[in-house]
Each structure stands twice: as C-alpha cells, then as structure tokens.
Amino acid sequence: MERHALSYNDWGKGRDMSGKSDRPKDTAGPAEAAAPDFDQFAQNMGRLVEEYGKITAAYLKPIERGEAKTGQADEASDMVKTLGRVAERWVNDPSKIIEAQASLTSDFMNLWSTALKRASGEEVAPVAEPDKRDGRFKDPDWNHPTFDFIKQAYLIGSRWAETMVDKADDLDPHTREKARFYIKQIAGALSPTNFVATNPELLRETMQQNGENLVRGMKMYAEDVEAGGGELKIRQSDGGSFEVGVNIATTPGKVIFRNEIIELIQYAPSTPQVLKRPLLIVPPWINKFYILDLNPEKSFIRWCVAQGLTVFCISWVNPDARHAAKDFESYMREGIFAALDTIEEATGEKKVSAIGYCVGGTLLGVTLAYMAAVRDKRIESATFFTTQVDFSQAGELSVFVDEEQIRAIEEQMAKTGYLDGARMSGAFNMLRPNDLIWSYAVNNYLKGKAPTPFDLLYWNSDSTRMPAANHSFYLRNCYLDNKLSKGGMRIGGKALDLKQVTIPIYNLAAREDHIAPAQSVFNGSQCFGGPVEHVVAGSGHIAGVVNSPAKVKYQYWTGGPVEGRYADWLAKADEHPGSWWPHWFSWLEAQAPKKVPAREPGGGKLKALADAPGTYVKVKA
Fold it and tell me: Where are the compositionally biased (Basic and acidic residues) regions (predicted)?
C-alpha cells in the first residue's frame, strides 16, 4: 500500500491529495507525519486489549487476597463535601450564578470569534494563554487552530472554576484552600494534554509508531499497579539504574549504633584534622536520609566531611506494625538522645552541633525546648533546613489537616500500625500535579517512554512508612493546633517553650518552598530566644538545600535581625550568588574553631556494625 506524507490537515478539508494546501498561511497544520500501517496498528490495538486485562488483574489481585489498601474513598468523599460547600454558596444567590455563567459564556463566545477570524486569515491575540512556566503546551503543534482552540477552551474552563472558588461568599479559609487544591487536582487530570485524542504530540507519536507507544505504556502501567500493591505508583525515574550504597549514598562511613528506630552512621574523615565539636544530622523520617548524600558532586554530607567535620547522621527505621506506639517522645529519646550518647562514647565529646531537616528539624526544635526545660546543654548550636516550628502559615500541606481528615487517617493507621509511605509521597506529588504526576503519566503510559535515570526522583519515590503514634502526634500538635509555637506542647511531662532555647540558630528557608513556606520558616525564626541567623535560599524544599558550591545554580539572601514582616526582611536582605553552604560553615566554625586529629569510625570504644549507608535505609515501603 502506497503511503503519503499527511499532516492532521489531511483528515479535514485543509489539503487535497496532491499536497497543496487551501488553508491560509498562518493556519498551517502540525509537523508532517507518515500515515500509519493499518495492519500493524490493528495488531497493536489487540495487544493493547491484552495489556488492559493485565492492568485489571493487577488492580483486583490485592482485593481478592484481602490486602487492598484503604483511604481513597475517604479522600474522594472529602473532595465531594468540600466542593459541595462551594456550590452551596453559589446556589444561595441565583443572581451570582447567572453572572458567573454569563462570564463563562462571554469567554467562550470570544474564543469562537477569534477562532473564526483566525480561520479567515486574520492574526488575532489568544483569549487565554498558558502560564509561562506551564510546560504542557510547549509542542509547536499546539499552535494548530484545532488544538489551539482545545487548549484555550481548557484554560478558560479551569480558570473559571478557580474563580468560582475564590468568589464564593462566606467560606472559611481552610475550606477555601481545600477547594482550590481539589480544583487544581481536577483541572490537572482533565487537561487535554493527558488524552491521545486531544494532544497533537500524542496523536503524532501514535500514528508514527502504529500504536506501539500505547502498548508499551500500558505494559508499564500494569507493572506500576503491581508495584503499588493494587494502587498506581507512577515511576518517576529508572529505578534499575540506582542502588543505595553502590552509586547513591556512597560517602564512606560505618554504622556504629543501632536500636529499634535508628542506625547512627559515623562518616570516615577525609582530612588529617577535624573540628573538635562533632556534627549530628537529624533528617526527616517521612523519606530517607540520603537526600543529603545523593552522589559525590552534590552530597552535603561528603562536603561537610571535606571541610573537616566529624559527621554523624541518623538513619531512621522504615517502621512497621511493631513500631505503632513509637511517638514523638520515642523519636526524641531513642533517636536524638541515643545519638548524643553514642557520639560521646565514640568521640569523648559531650557537646555537639546539630542539623535538622524538615520534620527532622521540627523534632530537633521540640528536643531543644525539652533540653532547655531540663537544663541539658549537650547541643550547643542548631541548624534548621526548611523547618517549621510555627505552623500558623504552614502552606499547601495544611489542606490535608482538619479534624475529619486526621480521624480518617488515624482509623487507617489503627488497622496496620503505620501510615503507608505511598500516602505521604502521593500528598507531596499532589502539591505539583502537572509536574510530578501528569507529566510522568503522559510520558510513561501514552508516549510509552521509560523515565530517564535521575537520582533525586529515585529518592523521591523511595518512600517510607510513618508510625501511627508519631504521625498522629505530629498532625494534631503541629499542623492542627500549632502547640509548639504557642507554648502548649508537652513532652515527657514538660511544657515546651522555644523562647528558652538560647543557643545560636542558623535557620534556612527556601524562597519557592511549597512544603515549608519561606513565610512559615521566617515566623519560626521569631520563636527562639537566642541569636538567629536567618538565611533564604533560592529554589525549593529540596533544590534550595541540595545546592552544592561545585555548581552555581541558585543564590541566597542574608539579612539583619529577624523581626517585622518577611517581605520587608527579604526586600532589605543582601543577595549572594551561589551556594549558602560555605556561609553556613563559616558560621559554624566560628563558634568552635578548635581542631583535633581525625576520628576513624569504629576505631574507638564502639565497633562498626555495618558499612554506611547501613541496613535500615535499604528497607522498602
């Protein structure tokens, strides 16, 4: 069968079979694509049906075994209730409904008018344009009149829905934020970029590959449902390209202590002398510590060792039902306090500097307040990476936290003793659904392309579970009631007051952080009773922290006293190019510059139990 090079216009009246176009010049169609081999296409559609069967089986298998995960029904119910409250506000005022409908109708009439003008050869400005940071519509074929119309119609509709939430009267702030969040999820899911029929790039790929891309994609889809235990776990990176301890998390060291919830790693020195005061890193337990040791080039841990620090890092257990009762106090005593005892035994040093990252920083803040209450002075300075201790402006994650949602999570955790790691990972991904969910869904399942190896995204998908008692305490005392900043939190029978924490603090925020917003971190800086060096890094929650001096990617800002409004502080702050790491080390070194001969892990009283990165970090969720 003879093939012709046909563009999408050939499927309408825009081109005769000779290849001559009867369309105006500015309405040229998408890039030329060969007509498919229809026999091969038909065969691939048959294979596609087979893959659908495998997907169904992967979904049903956990249900048949009685192992199906719960929670999605509660989430869907909350979404319906929240958007129902928005609808109620509009129903109560019919005149506003008419006004809103008229606004939407007017926008679509303008879109239709501009489409007709464009078809007649006029150059017209679009009615709706994507945000410059929105990469979904970058393919040139979105300029084709048909797909441009689809794109603009989608943008008009999704923005109208957002406006309906913003203009709904008498909504409490939490309900409004939840409604905005759910509208963002729905709009992201319904984007025309997510469907073959409405995405010119996908159409082109499918025609060129005779549907082979869809077959490959559905095969990966079935594999990902199987990997998720009956729920879709979208792969973001080529997991087979990385192995913890082999080509990721490779800074040399030894595990020198282990209990039920931590392994403590002491890293091998790379300088003949080191600072006398050791450094303890308290990472978050909602994901794994090696975000600070991804590879030699961007490893914060390796860099610290190279500066002459004796670095200890906690590696949290990936908990299961045995750890259900481990709460915040357990993590303080069996985590931070156990690490402090071990450091003293290994080095003879009673005083340390400490770093806390994200929720690890929140735990460190709680611990410092408790230590102040009992006059324990073993931690002489503290650094916080993108940490919240004041949750009054906690950002987008707060949409997941109210009494009803926490109760539902607690009921789920009561059945297993923990929160499944996929739930927390999914929540983080939902904060940026177009970037972290739908872009991978399109690439993997519709284009049929396996994701490329990327250490950061491999780490992102290497999720961990959360013990029931710990997670419930965190949600209720921090996000829901904000007790730590108010002086209302109690640990070990002691009332905690951050104003009693008078040691030097280095508090790092990230300017574009959507997990620990810069405003929230700034508020937290005002909670402490001693000197605070407040620093703002460029980029977000991860890239703002993992910003090695080896590559100048982002800048950072330093300023004066932490007082007044964050916007005013930032406006007066000094901007510096490059990484904040050297600035932090200068601050740390100035406090205790004395040096001693380098300490080898496992060379003293405590013998090595395993090579870094240990065993706990390798346990999958």
Answer: 12-26
Report DSSP state, residue 30. S
Dist. CA 512–CA 254, nearest whole Å: 35
Phi, psi for residue 314 in degrees, rounded to 5: -80, 135
How far is C-alpha 401 from the geometric centre of its chain's CA atoms? 17
Domain count, the chain: 2
- C-alpha pair distances (Å), 242 with each of 237, 438, 452: 10, 23, 11
Interatomic CA distance for residues 154 and 41, integer angstroms? 30
**pTM of the full predicted structure?**
0.88
**Gyration radius (Cα) of the chain, Å:** 28
Give per-residue pLDDT as tens, 419-463: 998 888 888 899 899 999 999 999 999 999 999 999 999 999 898
As a whole number of angstroms, the distance between CA 369 and CA 210 comes to 64
CATH of the domain at 498: 3.40.50.1820
In a domain, 39, yes or no: no
DSSP secondary structure letter of residue 166: H
Provide the token pair at 135. Answer: 């990469």
pLDDT (tens digit per residue) in 310-351: 999 999 999 999 999 999 999 999 999 999 999 999 999 999
Question: Quick check: 5 pLDDT over 70?
Answer: no
Instruction: Give, for 18, the enclosing helix (H) or strand (E).
Output: none
- Within a domain: residue 153? no
Mean pLDDT, rounded, of the chain: 90
Compute the Cα dihedral for 410, 411, 416, 417 and give only its sign: positive
Residue 457's CB is within 10 A of a number of other CB atoms, namely: 19
pLDDT tens track for 477-491: 999 999 999 999 999
Specify the DSSP element, H or E, that contains 613.
Answer: none
pLDDT in tens, 360-389: 999 999 999 999 999 999 999 999 999 999
CA 431/CA 541 separation, integer angstroms = 12
Q: Counting runs of H as helices and runs of E as strands, what totals does the chain give?
A: 21, 19
What domain range includes position 24? 5-34
User: CA 569 to CA 567: how far, in whole Å?
Assistant: 5
In a domain, 276, yes or no: yes
d(CA 21, CA 35): 18
d(CA 208, CA 565) in angstroms, rounded, equals 56
Phi and psi at residue 89, to the nearest 5°: -65, -35
The two three-digit tokens of residue 383, written as one number: 């650094």
Nearest to residue 306, comparing CAs of 352, 274, 283, 342? 274
Q: Which residues are catalytic?
A: 358
